[in-house]
Amino acid sequence: MLTVNVNFVSHAYPIHIGAGLLDRTELFAPYLKGSSVALITNATLEPLYAARLKAALAPLGKELIQIVLPDGEAYKNWETLNFIFTKLLEAHADRKTTLIALGGGVVGDITGFAAACYMRGVPFIQVPTTLLAQVDSSVGGKTGINHPLGKNMIGAFHQPQVVIADTALLRTLPLRELAAGLAEIIKAGAIADAGFFDWIETNIDALNRGDEAATAEAVHRACGIKAQVVAADEREQGVRALLNFGHTFGHAIEAGLGYGAWLHGEAVGCGMVMAATLSQQLGLIDSVTQARLKQLIAAAHLPTQAPPLGNERYLDLMRVDKKAEAGQINCILLKRLGAALVERVADHNLCAALTASVQP
Ligand code: NAD
Ligand code: MG
């Protein structure tokens, strides 16, 4: 088992990573204080893994409240949140009840937000089951739901007691979801750790195959990078913005095609290539660095060419991004592999990068 410690000033907690952790009672035991536990999962994961988690918890003698949500981003909303509250109230969950999120980023985000709100805050544990959730959404304490007028617009910062990332659960993950998670792993190397980027290049075939040792190492190193960045900037006012490398272009692709057409990780993968192209055009990196990033994204089975939405449409979509200020578009650019910066970029420069990135 590998462990990353997330050291927030207000609250420190461990992320445990390894195969088979789901069955290990002792990893959960220290964090379950009250007499009941609520296991929150979705309809896809419940038949796969809920029984094993319940068996791990059984020796602890807690009353178990099981809440099964419908599967999908479309259900990360107010109705589902209220459904969770109703179930908790009906079962007489109290302020010591710990919520356990068993699922990908959708289950993790909504469960974390439910924990932040229920009785003004109860403890929760993340058991992330997608690669993306293991390296990204379960780390950092952002929780929330979507609003019809915007994704992730309603939420709270609420840190888990512990994150238990069982890499063996990824065996049942669809390959497209695996690749989407790899995008965020490649991002971590690109913005913060050139040595890790080299390592991913060498090990990309093993990662694509879901090789256990390679996956655990990648999750460990990517989590370590995210933990370091978020601990330095708990409420997202500075360096945390660098985690959005590839996301300004990526969000434009997701919104422009309609959410769900491309997975978030696919859009971010392509968005990173676009941001690298922009960085090269601005003279920050050379063509070899841009090509290395593009090759690695392709090797992870992620798209490298942007859909043709039209430059004006791209700019409009990028202006509504959360990182934009007063209509000015801020981009995360590469200084070199392993280092990034935030910069305001003029429209004509963005258009040049878009023209070079869009499918012919
Ligand atoms: P997801 O939670 O929708 O999971 C993807 C699909 O895989 C779902 O159908 C799910 O049921 C299925 N699945 C999950 N684990 C499985 C397994 N082990 N075996 C088989 N199937 C499995 O998607 P995601 O990519 O994990 O998360 C996306 C969400 O995360 C978005 O809502 C996004 O906004 C959020 N997010 C949050 C943060 C944050 O900091 N809080 C960061 C990034 C993303
Ligand atoms: Mg992301």
Automatic annotation (TrEMBL):
GO BP field: amino acid biosynthetic process; aromatic amino acid family biosynthetic process; chorismate biosynthetic process
Binding site for Zn(2+): 184, 247, 264
Pathway: Metabolic intermediate biosynthesis; chorismate biosynthesis; chorismate from D-erythrose 4-phosphate and phosphoenolpyruvate: step 2/7
Localisation per UniProt entry: Cytoplasm
Superkingdom of the source species: Bacteria
Cellular component terms (Gene Ontology): cytoplasm
Alphabetical UniProt keywords: Amino-acid biosynthesis, Aromatic amino acid biosynthesis, Cobalt, Cytoplasm, Lyase, Metal-binding, NAD, Nucleotide-binding, Zinc
Top-level EC class as recorded in UniProt: lyase
Entry similarity comment: Belongs to the sugar phosphate cyclases superfamily. Dehydroquinate synthase family.
Protein name per Swiss-Prot or TrEMBL: 3-dehydroquinate synthase
Gene name tied to this protein: aroB
